[in-house]
């Protein structure tokens, strides 16, 4: 039965998924994918040709694998893969011929173990087609014959002269490479002279990274997105690319401290000055626009840590009248709660480390907007660096798949927590745009669909009392960052401003009893009980 069943069982898409080093790319059910064009005449001949290449093995079609018993599937994996691998790398005088024979025998053994009882065989035969395998065109035995040493074979076999393409995986492959090759100089010239599109160097682009960029562009309604190694990398790259030497920017009093440090200490070295205004002070913005040649208005909305909101539509209209660009850092809002570009902003920026990644396990930043503006930033990025590692890009992609679920939970829990804290006698005040007491509550309702997962508040007590409250909590981690699955809490006076004395901290509104609470996706009742017991402890 085994001898007569090879073609029937292994006709289409014969590639073993259990050995990632030995793979045939693509599905071959009646299609031609790129270089895969020659039809094999028999399964044994096909096995021999793949063994000769020292880089091919079978992939059983999914409907076949599902019908194999566990034992038969294990036999297929252990025999079909292990024997071919061992034979391919033997040191006898004819290694590839031995590999071919071993591979053919492996197919016999695997097929014999895999064929079910006679009553099931007909059903199996009907469920699997008889199309031939396709092999790469014009490669032949020369792929390995150019090498005299096993060391060279180990480096290049299965890769140098063509490899399979993974285009049927559900998840996006991680392309770990620092550079991309051209088959011949004519291809390189076509690329350089813009007759062809290709990757060239890892800092200039990566297939995995592009998927993350396209996802973010789709969420933001942007023409283009650049994703980089961190949120600060995105911010500084944007400022350096779009603000000319001697230019002027407008920003807001409440913002991430490292952004403020860059604006106040680094940009002046290039002759760039800044005006700082209250997020709601549109009169101050109008004065700044009239008195200065403003290149850019840059702010967070909501801001960090007081969650102030900027009227993005109004600010954009005012700035555009004076020829200034508008960039909104929407990290606290997420692309789900706020669409800054549709409100009129030219660019929207995120620390993707936070909600977009969402699992406290990756650093990344991104900036989205028109192709023209993002290209200017991208060109500088190609020079300066700060490329996102493709493994990190994969984590961003993975995190975004649950973004809407996480943000929905965090929006809901944060609003409930804000209301709970505002009503508690041991809390002096709460900063959350979803509360009517927030100064921009009505604005937030107009331009946001949810108010985010961060709640800031002041404990009724001094720094020691606040420390005792935080240390009494059992669930949240004491850590920087926010937006992840796990709840995180900190005192900004200690976490972010401890190098300043109390008087200096108060210039930025940072009191010793201020707490920033990033709500995770834990059950709200658990968080509620934990917060209440910690408040009872002070």
Automatic annotation (TrEMBL):
The entry's keywords: Amino-acid biosynthesis, Methionine biosynthesis, Pyridoxal phosphate
Catalytic activity: O-succinyl-L-homoserine + L-cysteine = L,L-cystathionine + succinate + H(+); O-phospho-L-homoserine + L-cysteine = L,L-cystathionine + phosphate
SUPFAM superfamilies: PLP-dependent transferases (SSF53383)
Enzyme kind, highest EC tier: transferase
CC annotations in GO: chloroplast
Pathway participation: Amino-acid biosynthesis; L-methionine biosynthesis via de novo pathway; L-cystathionine from O-succinyl-L-homoserine: step 1/1
GO MF term (any one): cystathionine gamma-synthase activity
Alphabetical GO biological process terms: methionine biosynthetic process; transsulfuration
Cofactor(s) the record lists: pyridoxal 5'-phosphate
Amino-acid biosynthesis in keyword set: yes
Keyword tRNA processing: no
EC number from the UniProt entry: 2.5.1.160
Family matches, as InterPro entries: CGS1/2, Cys/Met-Metab_PyrdxlP-dep_enz, Cys_met_metab_PP, PyrdxlP-dep_Trfase, PyrdxlP-dep_Trfase_major, PyrdxlP-dep_Trfase_small
Family indicated by similarity: Belongs to the trans-sulfuration enzymes family.
Protein name: plant cystathionine gamma-synthase
Taxonomic lineage: Eukaryota, Viridiplantae, Streptophyta, Embryophyta, Tracheophyta
Gene assigned in the entry: LOC111482275
């Amino acid at each position: 039965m085994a001898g007569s069943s090879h073609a029937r069982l292994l006709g289409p898409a014969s590639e073993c998924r259990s050995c990632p080093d030995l793979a045939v790319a693509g599905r071959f059910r009646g299609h031609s994918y790129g270089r895969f064009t020659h039809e094999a005449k028999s399964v044994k001949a096909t096995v021999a040709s793949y063994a000769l290449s020292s880089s091919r093995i079978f992939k059983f079609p999914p409907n076949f694998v599902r019908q194999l018993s566990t034992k038969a599937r294990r036999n297929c994996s252990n025999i079909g893969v292990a024997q071919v691998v061992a034979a391919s790398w033997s040191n006898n005088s004819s290694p590839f011929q031995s590999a071919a024979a071993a591979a053919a025998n492996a197919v016999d053994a695997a097929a014999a173990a895999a064929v079910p009882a006679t009553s099931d065989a007909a059903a199996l035969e009907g469920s699997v087609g008889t199309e031939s395998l396709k092999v790469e065109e014009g490669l032949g035995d020369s792929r390995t014959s150019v090498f005299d040493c096993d060391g060279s074979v180990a480096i290049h076999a299965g890769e140098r002269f063509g490899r399979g393409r993974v285009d049927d995986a559900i998840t996006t492959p991680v392309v770990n490479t620092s550079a991309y090759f051209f088959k011949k100089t004519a291809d390189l010239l076509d690329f350089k002279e813009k007759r062809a599109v290709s990757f060239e160097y890892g800092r200039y682009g990566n297939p995995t990274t592009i998927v993350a960029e396209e996802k973010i562009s789709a969420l933001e309604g942007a023409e283009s997105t650049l994703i980089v190694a961190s949120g600060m990398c995105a911010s500084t790259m944007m400022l350096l690319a779009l603000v000319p030497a001697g230019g002027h920017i407008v920003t807001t009093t409440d913002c991430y401290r490292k952004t403020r440090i860059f604006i106040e200490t680094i940009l002046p070295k290039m002759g760039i000055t800044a005006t700082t205004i209250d997020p709601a002070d549109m009169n101050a913005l109008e004065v700044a626009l009239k008195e200065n040649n403003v290149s850019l208005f840059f702010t967070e909305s909501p801001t960090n840590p007081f969650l102030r909101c900027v009227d993005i539509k109004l600010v954009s209209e005012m700035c555009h009248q004076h020829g200034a660009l508008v960039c909104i850092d929407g990290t606290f809002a997420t692309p789900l709660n706020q669409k800054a570009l549709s409100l009129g902003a030219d660019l929207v920026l995120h620390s993707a480390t936070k909600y977009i990644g969402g699992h406290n396990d990756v650093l990344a930043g991104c900036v989205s907007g028109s192709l023209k503006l993002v290209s200017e930033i991208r060109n500088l990025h190609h020079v300066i660096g700060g490329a996102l590692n493709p493994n990190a890009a994969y984590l961003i992609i993975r995190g975004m798949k649950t973004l809407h679920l996480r943000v929905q939970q965090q929006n809901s829990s944060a609003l409930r927590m804000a209301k709970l804290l505002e009503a508690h006698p041991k809390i002096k005040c709460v900063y959350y745009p979803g509360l009517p007491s927030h100064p921009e509550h009505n604005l937030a309702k107009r331009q946001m669909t949810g108010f985010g997962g961060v709640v800031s508040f002041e404990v009724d007590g001094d720094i020691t009392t606040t420390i005792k409250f935080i240390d009494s909590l059992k669930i949240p981690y004491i850590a920087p960052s926010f937006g992840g699955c796990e709840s995180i809490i900190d005192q900004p006076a200690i976490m972010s401003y401890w190098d300043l004395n109390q008087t200096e901290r108060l210039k930025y509104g940072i009191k010793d009893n201020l707490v920033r609470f990033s709500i995770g996706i834990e059950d709200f009742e658990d968080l509620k009980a934990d917060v209440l017991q910690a408040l009872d402890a002070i």
